[in-house]
Amino acid sequence: MTQLDWQIDDHWRTRWEWLYDDHKSRTESTGFDVQYRAEAGHVLNLGYRWQLEGFEPAEDLEDTRTYDLEEFSASFAYKAMNRLDLIGGVRYDNTNDRMLEQLAGVQWNDCCYGLQLVWREWIDDEGTANTIEDDTTDRGLFLRFVFKGLGGVGGETGDFFASAVPGYRGTDLDRR
pTM of this prediction? Predict the structure, then answer.
């Protein structure tokens, strides 16, 4: 396993990962990411992933992926105003010519309350890696409303924002 991180300057960074099996003399996976982070809090991420057929070991040998996996991804966070953040992202399966995930979200933060709203559509592989025939598309609209100092209603979308957009640092809605 080789991983190379390079902080080019205050705004740009890259990461390259490479997994090579020296016993089989082959590359099993590789990935490349580039990230731009502005001082104002804006973030842009672009990524590429490739995995060899059957690389992800399954407990059931009949459930081994039978194709190489090639994915592209992009995500962003944009601080539109002092209190308003916008996020978005996509993950595309180039091997099977389909969108794996797409999302859009907004966060509003005021002195007394906070609001996070996320729309997301994703592929659920139903636990079978060897075929895409039984995959289903799920979608949802997720809302979190917080009264500062009193608690909130809804799921923990804040952690989701940070995982969906690497480098995103939103306003802590639980803090007054």
Answer: 0.81
